[in-house]
TrEMBL record, chain A:
Assembly and oligomerization: Heterodimer of a catalytic subunit (MsrP) and a heme-binding subunit (MsrQ).
Cofactor binding note from Swiss-Prot or TrEMBL: Binds 1 FMN per subunit.
Domain called Ferric oxidoreductase: residue spans: 47-160
Cofactor list: FMN; heme b
Domain of life: Bacteria
GO annotation terms (biological process): protein repair
Name this protein carries in UniProt: Protein-methionine-sulfoxide reductase heme-binding subunit MsrQ
Lineage of the species this protein comes from: Bacteria, Pseudomonadati, Pseudomonadota, Gammaproteobacteria, Oceanospirillales
Gene expressing this chain: msrQ
Transmembrane segments: 9-27, 47-68, 80-102, 114-132, 152-169, 175-192
Length: 196, 270
Protein backbone atom coordinates (compact mmCIF):
# COMPACT_ATOMS: atom_id res chain seq x y z
CA UNK A 1 0.00 0.00 0.00
CA UNK A 2 2.74 2.42 1.00
CA UNK A 3 4.91 1.42 -1.95
CA UNK A 4 1.99 1.85 -4.34
CA UNK A 5 1.25 5.37 -3.16
CA UNK A 6 4.93 6.27 -3.40
CA UNK A 7 4.99 5.04 -6.96
CA UNK A 8 1.92 7.08 -7.70
CA UNK A 9 3.48 10.17 -6.19
CA UNK A 10 6.63 9.70 -8.25
CA UNK A 11 4.53 9.36 -11.40
CA UNK A 12 2.61 12.50 -10.48
CA UNK A 13 5.82 14.50 -10.17
CA UNK A 14 7.28 13.15 -13.39
CA UNK A 15 4.15 14.06 -15.32
CA UNK A 16 3.79 17.41 -13.58
CA UNK A 17 7.35 18.45 -14.36
CA UNK A 18 7.25 17.11 -17.93
CA UNK A 19 4.23 19.21 -18.80
CA UNK A 20 5.78 22.23 -17.14
CA UNK A 21 8.88 21.90 -19.34
CA UNK A 22 7.41 23.69 -22.40
CA UNK A 23 6.73 26.74 -20.25
CA UNK A 24 10.19 26.65 -18.69
CA UNK A 25 11.64 26.38 -22.18
CA UNK A 26 9.72 29.48 -23.30
CA UNK A 27 10.84 31.36 -20.19
CA UNK A 28 14.43 30.35 -20.93
CA UNK A 29 14.06 31.64 -24.53
CA UNK A 30 12.51 34.82 -23.17
CA UNK A 31 15.34 35.43 -20.71
CA UNK A 32 18.04 34.67 -23.29
CA UNK A 33 16.32 36.92 -25.84
CA UNK A 34 15.76 33.98 -28.15
CA UNK A 35 12.09 34.46 -29.09
CA UNK A 36 12.91 36.10 -32.44
CA UNK A 37 11.81 39.34 -34.06
CA UNK A 38 8.16 38.70 -33.24
CA UNK A 39 8.27 37.35 -29.69
CA UNK A 40 4.56 37.98 -29.13
CA UNK A 41 3.40 35.88 -32.05
CA UNK A 42 5.82 33.11 -31.19
CA UNK A 43 4.81 33.01 -27.55
CA UNK A 44 1.08 33.09 -28.31
CA UNK A 45 1.27 30.30 -30.88
CA UNK A 46 3.52 28.12 -28.72
CA UNK A 47 1.24 28.46 -25.68
CA UNK A 48 -1.78 27.61 -27.82
CA UNK A 49 0.03 24.61 -29.25
CA UNK A 50 0.79 23.22 -25.78
CA UNK A 51 -2.76 23.83 -24.60
CA UNK A 52 -3.93 21.67 -27.49
CA UNK A 53 -1.38 18.94 -26.77
CA UNK A 54 -2.35 18.78 -23.07
CA UNK A 55 -6.01 18.56 -24.00
CA UNK A 56 -5.30 15.79 -26.49
CA UNK A 57 -3.36 13.92 -23.79
CA UNK A 58 -6.32 14.14 -21.44
CA UNK A 59 -8.59 12.82 -24.20
CA UNK A 60 -6.17 9.95 -24.82
CA UNK A 61 -6.56 8.64 -21.25
CA UNK A 62 -9.74 6.64 -21.86
CA UNK A 63 -8.60 4.92 -25.08
CA UNK A 64 -5.13 4.14 -23.65
CA UNK A 65 -6.63 2.78 -20.45
CA UNK A 66 -9.04 0.54 -22.32
CA UNK A 67 -6.75 -0.61 -25.10
CA UNK A 68 -3.54 -1.09 -23.14
CA UNK A 69 -4.83 -1.47 -19.61
CA UNK A 70 -3.01 1.62 -18.37
CA UNK A 71 -5.43 2.09 -15.51
CA UNK A 72 -3.07 4.34 -13.57
CA UNK A 73 -3.46 7.09 -16.17
CA UNK A 74 -6.92 7.99 -14.88
CA UNK A 75 -5.40 9.19 -11.60
CA UNK A 76 -3.64 11.96 -13.50
CA UNK A 77 -6.33 12.95 -15.98
CA UNK A 78 -7.33 16.00 -13.96
CA UNK A 79 -3.75 17.23 -14.11
CA UNK A 80 -3.71 16.93 -17.90
CA UNK A 81 -6.98 18.84 -18.16
CA UNK A 82 -5.81 21.56 -15.80
CA UNK A 83 -2.57 21.90 -17.74
CA UNK A 84 -4.62 22.39 -20.91
CA UNK A 85 -6.55 25.12 -19.12
CA UNK A 86 -3.33 26.60 -17.75
CA UNK A 87 -1.68 26.88 -21.18
CA UNK A 88 -4.93 28.12 -22.74
CA UNK A 89 -5.12 30.85 -20.08
CA UNK A 90 -1.54 31.93 -20.77
CA UNK A 91 -2.27 31.77 -24.52
CA UNK A 92 -5.22 34.14 -24.12
CA UNK A 93 -3.39 36.40 -21.69
CA UNK A 94 -0.36 36.62 -24.00
CA UNK A 95 -2.65 37.41 -26.92
CA UNK A 96 -4.37 40.26 -25.07
CA UNK A 97 -1.17 41.65 -23.59
CA UNK A 98 1.52 41.18 -26.20
CA UNK A 99 -0.40 41.03 -29.49
CA UNK A 100 -3.26 43.41 -28.75
CA UNK A 101 -1.44 45.52 -26.15
CA UNK A 102 -4.68 45.55 -24.13
CA UNK A 103 -6.10 47.99 -26.69
CA UNK A 104 -9.83 47.66 -26.20
CA UNK A 105 -10.64 48.58 -29.81
CA UNK A 106 -8.42 45.76 -31.07
CA UNK A 107 -9.69 43.23 -28.51
CA UNK A 108 -13.32 44.05 -29.25
CA UNK A 109 -12.71 43.85 -33.00
CA UNK A 110 -10.97 40.48 -32.70
CA UNK A 111 -13.52 38.89 -30.36
CA UNK A 112 -16.53 40.02 -32.37
CA UNK A 113 -15.33 39.82 -35.98
CA UNK A 114 -12.85 36.99 -36.30
CA UNK A 115 -14.44 33.54 -36.48
CA UNK A 116 -11.25 31.79 -35.38
CA UNK A 117 -10.95 34.05 -32.34
CA UNK A 118 -14.63 33.53 -31.51
CA UNK A 119 -14.35 29.72 -31.51
CA UNK A 120 -11.17 30.01 -29.48
CA UNK A 121 -12.86 32.15 -26.85
CA UNK A 122 -15.87 29.79 -26.75
CA UNK A 123 -13.55 26.84 -26.23
CA UNK A 124 -11.83 28.72 -23.43
CA UNK A 125 -15.16 29.39 -21.68
CA UNK A 126 -15.93 25.67 -21.80
CA UNK A 127 -12.48 24.82 -20.42
CA UNK A 128 -12.98 27.43 -17.69
CA UNK A 129 -16.23 25.82 -16.60
CA UNK A 130 -14.49 22.46 -16.43
CA UNK A 131 -11.50 23.84 -14.55
CA UNK A 132 -13.55 25.53 -11.82
CA UNK A 133 -15.55 22.34 -11.28
CA UNK A 134 -12.51 20.09 -11.30
CA UNK A 135 -12.08 19.86 -7.53
CA UNK A 136 -13.15 16.81 -5.54
CA UNK A 137 -15.51 19.04 -3.59
CA UNK A 138 -17.32 20.19 -6.74
CA UNK A 139 -17.39 16.63 -8.00
CA UNK A 140 -19.21 15.55 -4.84
CA UNK A 141 -21.54 18.51 -4.83
CA UNK A 142 -22.59 18.10 -8.47
CA UNK A 143 -22.96 14.33 -8.26
CA UNK A 144 -24.22 12.86 -11.52
CA UNK A 145 -24.45 16.27 -13.16
CA UNK A 146 -20.66 16.57 -12.84
CA UNK A 147 -20.11 13.83 -15.41
CA UNK A 148 -22.62 15.41 -17.79
CA UNK A 149 -20.95 18.81 -17.40
CA UNK A 150 -17.56 17.33 -18.14
CA UNK A 151 -18.74 15.90 -21.45
CA UNK A 152 -18.21 19.51 -22.56
CA UNK A 153 -14.61 18.48 -23.15
CA UNK A 154 -15.79 17.01 -26.48
CA UNK A 155 -17.32 20.18 -27.97
CA UNK A 156 -14.36 22.12 -26.54
CA UNK A 157 -11.89 19.89 -28.38
CA UNK A 158 -13.84 20.27 -31.62
CA UNK A 159 -13.87 24.07 -31.26
CA UNK A 160 -10.13 24.00 -30.63
CA UNK A 161 -9.34 21.94 -33.72
CA UNK A 162 -11.48 24.37 -35.76
CA UNK A 163 -9.54 27.25 -34.17
CA UNK A 164 -6.33 25.53 -35.25
CA UNK A 165 -7.54 24.66 -38.76
CA UNK A 166 -8.52 28.29 -39.36
CA UNK A 167 -4.86 29.25 -38.88
CA UNK A 168 -3.78 27.31 -41.98
CA UNK A 169 -1.98 29.40 -44.57
CA UNK A 170 -0.89 26.75 -47.04
CA UNK A 171 0.51 23.68 -45.29
CA UNK A 172 -1.96 21.60 -43.31
CA UNK A 173 0.22 18.69 -42.14
CA UNK A 174 -0.03 19.50 -38.41
CA UNK A 175 -3.72 20.27 -38.49
CA UNK A 176 -4.38 17.02 -40.32
CA UNK A 177 -2.35 15.06 -37.77
CA UNK A 178 -4.21 16.45 -34.75
CA UNK A 179 -7.59 16.15 -36.52
CA UNK A 180 -6.98 12.45 -37.21
CA UNK A 181 -5.94 11.88 -33.60
CA UNK A 182 -9.07 13.63 -32.36
CA UNK A 183 -11.31 11.71 -34.76
CA UNK A 184 -9.79 8.42 -33.53
CA UNK A 185 -10.15 9.36 -29.85
CA UNK A 186 -13.75 10.55 -30.16
CA UNK A 187 -14.65 7.78 -32.60
CA UNK A 188 -13.39 5.17 -30.15
CA UNK A 189 -15.75 6.51 -27.49
CA UNK A 190 -18.71 6.32 -29.85
CA UNK A 191 -17.73 2.76 -30.72
CA UNK A 192 -17.63 1.73 -27.04
CA UNK A 193 -20.94 3.40 -26.36
CA UNK A 194 -22.68 1.65 -29.25
CA UNK A 195 -21.31 -1.73 -28.23
CA UNK A 196 -22.47 -1.51 -24.64
CA UNK B 1 29.73 43.00 -48.92
CA UNK B 2 28.62 45.18 -51.79
CA UNK B 3 30.42 48.52 -52.03
CA UNK B 4 29.71 51.66 -53.98
CA UNK B 5 25.91 51.79 -53.82
CA UNK B 6 24.69 55.37 -53.45
CA UNK B 7 21.97 56.05 -50.91
CA UNK B 8 18.79 57.28 -52.56
CA UNK B 9 17.29 59.56 -49.93
CA UNK B 10 14.36 60.61 -52.12
CA UNK B 11 13.19 57.00 -52.23
CA UNK B 12 13.83 56.19 -48.59
CA UNK B 13 11.73 56.43 -45.46
CA UNK B 14 13.25 57.96 -42.38
CA UNK B 15 12.16 55.24 -40.01
CA UNK B 16 14.29 52.99 -37.87
CA UNK B 17 15.44 49.96 -39.82
CA UNK B 18 15.10 46.47 -38.37
CA UNK B 19 18.34 45.01 -36.98
CA UNK B 20 19.99 42.83 -39.63
CA UNK B 21 19.71 39.77 -37.42
CA UNK B 22 15.93 40.02 -37.29
CA UNK B 23 15.61 40.73 -41.02
CA UNK B 24 17.41 37.46 -41.81
CA UNK B 25 15.73 35.24 -39.20
CA UNK B 26 12.08 36.27 -39.53
CA UNK B 27 11.09 35.31 -43.06
CA UNK B 28 8.19 33.99 -45.06
CA UNK B 29 9.78 31.91 -47.79
CA UNK B 30 7.49 28.90 -47.78
CA UNK B 31 9.70 26.90 -50.14
CA UNK B 32 11.99 26.43 -47.13
CA UNK B 33 9.24 25.82 -44.56
CA UNK B 34 6.24 27.67 -43.18
CA UNK B 35 7.66 28.69 -39.81
CA UNK B 36 9.27 32.14 -39.71
CA UNK B 37 12.55 30.62 -38.57
CA UNK B 38 12.63 27.83 -41.17
CA UNK B 39 14.13 29.78 -44.10
CA UNK B 40 17.17 30.90 -42.07
CA UNK B 41 17.67 27.30 -40.96
CA UNK B 42 17.08 25.44 -44.20
CA UNK B 43 18.26 27.88 -46.88
CA UNK B 44 21.83 28.02 -45.60
CA UNK B 45 23.38 25.95 -48.37
CA UNK B 46 21.03 27.14 -51.13
CA UNK B 47 23.00 27.40 -54.38
CA UNK B 48 22.68 30.74 -56.19
CA UNK B 49 25.68 30.42 -58.47
CA UNK B 50 25.42 29.77 -61.39
CA UNK B 51 22.02 31.47 -61.86
CA UNK B 52 20.09 32.18 -65.01
CA UNK B 53 17.00 34.23 -65.70
CA UNK B 54 14.70 33.56 -68.61
CA UNK B 55 13.11 36.60 -70.27
CA UNK B 56 10.13 35.57 -72.36
CA UNK B 57 6.86 36.62 -73.95
CA UNK B 58 6.09 39.99 -75.50
CA UNK B 59 9.63 41.39 -75.73
CA UNK B 60 11.99 42.09 -78.61
CA UNK B 61 14.92 40.41 -76.87
CA UNK B 62 13.78 37.21 -75.20
CA UNK B 63 16.32 34.66 -74.03
CA UNK B 64 18.02 32.93 -71.16
CA UNK B 65 20.55 35.25 -69.57
CA UNK B 66 23.25 34.66 -67.00
CA UNK B 67 22.67 36.63 -63.83
CA UNK B 68 25.91 38.59 -64.37
CA UNK B 69 24.60 39.79 -67.74
CA UNK B 70 21.24 40.72 -66.21
CA UNK B 71 22.96 42.82 -63.54
CA UNK B 72 25.96 44.21 -65.44
CA UNK B 73 24.62 47.55 -66.75
CA UNK B 74 22.85 48.58 -63.55
CA UNK B 75 24.26 50.82 -60.84
CA UNK B 76 23.00 49.74 -57.44
CA UNK B 77 21.32 52.13 -55.06
CA UNK B 78 20.47 51.86 -51.41
CA UNK B 79 16.80 52.45 -50.59
CA UNK B 80 15.06 52.13 -47.24
CA UNK B 81 11.54 50.77 -47.69
CA UNK B 82 8.72 49.71 -45.43
CA UNK B 83 7.80 46.05 -45.84
CA UNK B 84 4.23 45.25 -44.82
CA UNK B 85 3.39 41.56 -44.57
CA UNK B 86 -0.19 40.47 -45.25
CA UNK B 87 -0.05 38.83 -41.80
CA UNK B 88 -0.15 42.33 -40.23
CA UNK B 89 3.48 42.74 -39.22
CA UNK B 90 6.01 45.05 -40.82
CA UNK B 91 9.72 45.85 -40.91
CA UNK B 92 11.83 48.64 -42.38
CA UNK B 93 14.57 47.26 -44.63
CA UNK B 94 17.49 48.92 -46.47
CA UNK B 95 17.64 47.27 -49.90
CA UNK B 96 20.35 47.33 -52.54
CA UNK B 97 18.96 47.25 -56.04
CA UNK B 98 17.94 49.09 -59.15
CA UNK B 99 14.60 50.10 -60.67
CA UNK B 100 12.80 47.22 -62.38
CA UNK B 101 11.86 49.71 -65.10
CA UNK B 102 15.51 50.01 -66.16
CA UNK B 103 15.75 46.25 -66.53
CA UNK B 104 12.49 45.95 -68.44
CA UNK B 105 13.45 48.66 -70.97
CA UNK B 106 16.57 46.71 -71.96
CA UNK B 107 14.50 43.82 -73.29
CA UNK B 108 12.19 46.13 -75.26
CA UNK B 109 8.68 45.00 -74.40
CA UNK B 110 6.22 45.21 -77.28
CA UNK B 111 2.83 46.94 -77.19
CA UNK B 112 1.32 43.60 -76.16
CA UNK B 113 3.22 43.60 -72.88
CA UNK B 114 0.43 44.62 -70.49
CA UNK B 115 1.53 42.45 -67.56
CA UNK B 116 4.73 40.99 -66.14
CA UNK B 117 4.87 37.60 -64.45
CA UNK B 118 7.73 36.47 -62.24
CA UNK B 119 8.62 32.94 -61.24
CA UNK B 120 10.68 31.57 -58.36
CA UNK B 121 13.05 28.67 -58.91
CA UNK B 122 11.57 25.17 -58.76
CA UNK B 123 14.06 22.95 -56.99
CA UNK B 124 12.55 20.14 -54.97
CA UNK B 125 15.93 18.92 -53.85
CA UNK B 126 16.89 22.18 -52.19
CA UNK B 127 13.42 23.37 -51.19
CA UNK B 128 11.73 20.97 -48.78
CA UNK B 129 8.26 22.51 -48.84
CA UNK B 130 8.08 21.96 -52.60
CA UNK B 131 8.19 18.24 -51.74
CA UNK B 132 5.50 18.42 -49.04
CA UNK B 133 2.36 16.39 -49.61
CA UNK B 134 0.33 18.68 -47.37
CA UNK B 135 0.98 22.04 -48.98
CA UNK B 136 -1.69 23.82 -51.01
CA UNK B 137 0.60 26.01 -53.13
CA UNK B 138 1.17 24.74 -56.65
CA UNK B 139 4.92 25.26 -57.13
CA UNK B 140 6.77 27.08 -58.56
CA UNK B 141 5.70 30.30 -56.88
CA UNK B 142 4.52 32.91 -59.37
CA UNK B 143 3.68 36.58 -58.96
CA UNK B 144 2.73 39.38 -61.29
CA UNK B 145 2.37 43.10 -61.83
CA UNK B 146 0.57 45.28 -64.30
CA UNK B 147 3.17 46.84 -66.63
CA UNK B 148 2.60 50.35 -65.24
CA UNK B 149 3.13 49.01 -61.71
CA UNK B 150 6.31 47.30 -62.86
CA UNK B 151 7.55 50.52 -64.51
CA UNK B 152 6.85 52.67 -61.44
CA UNK B 153 10.13 54.09 -60.10
CA UNK B 154 9.42 52.63 -56.64
CA UNK B 155 9.47 49.06 -57.95
CA UNK B 156 12.89 47.66 -57.19
CA UNK B 157 14.91 44.64 -58.27
CA UNK B 158 17.05 43.85 -55.24
CA UNK B 159 20.29 41.91 -55.03
CA UNK B 160 21.26 42.95 -51.53
CA UNK B 161 20.27 44.44 -48.22
CA UNK B 162 22.11 46.17 -45.37
CA UNK B 163 25.10 46.66 -47.67
CA UNK B 164 25.49 42.91 -48.25
CA UNK B 165 24.40 40.46 -50.90
CA UNK B 166 20.96 38.97 -50.21
CA UNK B 167 21.07 35.93 -47.94
CA UNK B 168 19.19 32.94 -49.44
CA UNK B 169 16.29 33.28 -46.98
CA UNK B 170 15.69 36.83 -48.20
CA UNK B 171 15.48 35.82 -51.84
CA UNK B 172 18.99 35.52 -53.22
CA UNK B 173 20.26 36.17 -55.76
CA UNK B 174 17.54 38.35 -57.29
CA UNK B 175 14.19 39.44 -55.88
CA UNK B 176 11.45 41.94 -56.40
CA UNK B 177 10.54 44.66 -53.88
CA UNK B 178 7.16 46.36 -54.33
CA UNK B 179 6.80 48.42 -51.15
CA UNK B 180 3.16 49.51 -51.51
CA UNK B 181 1.92 45.94 -51.81
CA UNK B 182 1.77 43.13 -49.27
CA UNK B 183 5.08 41.31 -48.94
CA UNK B 184 4.02 38.18 -50.82
CA UNK B 185 4.04 40.20 -54.07
CA UNK B 186 7.78 40.78 -53.64
CA UNK B 187 8.76 37.44 -55.12
CA UNK B 188 12.11 35.89 -54.26
CA UNK B 189 14.84 33.98 -56.12
CA UNK B 190 13.54 34.87 -59.59
CA UNK B 191 14.35 32.63 -62.57
CA UNK B 192 11.81 33.84 -65.10
CA UNK B 193 10.27 37.15 -66.16
CA UNK B 194 7.45 36.79 -68.65
CA UNK B 195 5.57 39.54 -70.48
CA UNK B 196 1.96 38.95 -71.48
CA UNK B 197 -1.17 40.63 -72.71
CA UNK B 198 -3.44 38.99 -70.14
CA UNK B 199 -3.35 39.12 -66.35
CA UNK B 200 -1.06 36.31 -65.15
CA UNK B 201 -1.89 33.84 -62.41
CA UNK B 202 -0.37 34.49 -58.99
CA UNK B 203 0.30 31.78 -56.41
CA UNK B 204 -1.64 33.07 -53.40
CA UNK B 205 -4.55 34.11 -55.57
CA UNK B 206 -4.78 30.56 -56.94
CA UNK B 207 -4.45 29.08 -53.44
CA UNK B 208 -7.06 31.28 -51.71
CA UNK B 209 -8.76 33.70 -54.13
CA UNK B 210 -11.10 35.09 -51.47
CA UNK B 211 -8.15 36.04 -49.27
CA UNK B 212 -5.49 37.25 -51.70
CA UNK B 213 -6.15 39.31 -54.81
CA UNK B 214 -3.93 40.06 -57.79
CA UNK B 215 -3.32 43.66 -56.73
CA UNK B 216 -2.71 43.09 -53.00
CA UNK B 217 -2.15 46.78 -52.37
CA UNK B 218 -1.66 47.52 -48.68
CA UNK B 219 -5.08 48.78 -47.64
CA UNK B 220 -6.18 49.31 -44.02
CA UNK B 221 -9.80 49.56 -45.17
CA UNK B 222 -9.99 46.02 -46.59
CA UNK B 223 -9.54 43.30 -43.99
CA UNK B 224 -8.14 39.89 -44.71
CA UNK B 225 -11.14 37.57 -44.13
CA UNK B 226 -9.41 36.14 -41.06
CA UNK B 227 -7.73 39.20 -39.57
CA UNK B 228 -7.75 42.97 -39.62
CA UNK B 229 -5.43 45.02 -41.80
CA UNK B 230 -6.18 48.30 -39.97
CA UNK B 231 -3.09 48.07 -37.78
CA UNK B 232 0.27 46.36 -37.97
CA UNK B 233 2.99 45.35 -35.53
CA UNK B 234 6.28 46.97 -36.46
CA UNK B 235 9.07 44.46 -35.85
CA UNK B 236 11.19 43.82 -34.03
CA UNK B 237 8.81 44.26 -31.14
CA UNK B 238 9.41 43.38 -27.54
CA UNK B 239 6.83 41.80 -25.29
CA UNK B 240 6.30 44.94 -23.28
CA UNK B 241 5.99 47.20 -26.33
CA UNK B 242 4.01 45.41 -29.04
CA UNK B 243 4.69 48.38 -31.36
CA UNK B 244 1.20 48.51 -32.84
CA UNK B 245 0.88 51.24 -35.46
CA UNK B 246 -1.85 52.21 -37.90
CA UNK B 247 -1.44 50.80 -41.39
CA UNK B 248 -1.30 53.46 -44.10
CA UNK B 249 -3.04 53.23 -47.49
CA UNK B 250 -0.53 51.90 -50.03
CA UNK B 251 1.80 51.38 -47.07
CA UNK B 252 2.48 55.13 -46.97
CA UNK B 253 3.39 55.36 -50.67
CA UNK B 254 0.04 56.78 -51.84
CA UNK B 255 1.66 59.94 -53.29
CA UNK B 256 3.77 57.86 -55.64
CA UNK B 257 1.28 55.15 -56.64
CA UNK B 258 -2.35 56.06 -55.90
CA UNK B 259 -2.72 57.47 -59.44
CA UNK B 260 -2.16 53.98 -60.87
CA UNK B 261 -5.52 52.90 -59.51
CA UNK B 262 -7.67 55.89 -60.41
CA UNK B 263 -11.27 54.84 -61.00
CA UNK B 264 -10.74 51.31 -59.66
CA UNK B 265 -12.85 49.90 -56.84
CA UNK B 266 -10.08 48.76 -54.52
CA UNK B 267 -12.56 47.12 -52.15
CA UNK B 268 -13.40 44.68 -54.90
CA UNK B 269 -10.02 44.56 -56.62
CA UNK B 270 -8.08 43.92 -53.42
Amino acid sequence: MFAASRKRLARWWILFLSLLLPLLWLVKDLLTNNLGADPAQYLVSQLGYWALICLWISLAVTPLRRLFGWGWLIQHRRMFGLYAFFYASLHLLAFATFLAGWRLDILLREVTERPYVIVGVLAFILLLSLAVTSTKKMQRRLGRRWQQLHYLIYPASILIIIHFIWQIRSDYAEQLFFSILLALMLGYRLYIKRRS
Amino acid sequence: KIAGAAHNAAFSVKEKTAPYYHAITHNNFYEFGTDKRDPARYAKSFKTDPWQVEISGAVAKPGVYNLEDILAPHALEDRIYRLRCVEAWSMVIPWLGFPLADLIKRFEPTSKAKFVQFQTILDKEQMSEQRSSFGTIDWPYVEGLRIDEAMNPLTLMAVGMYGNALPPQNGAPLRLVVPWKYGFKSIKSIVRIHFSETMPETSWNITAPDEYGFYANVNPAVDHPRWSQATERRLPATLLSPNIIDTLPFNGYADQVAHLYKGMDLNRLF
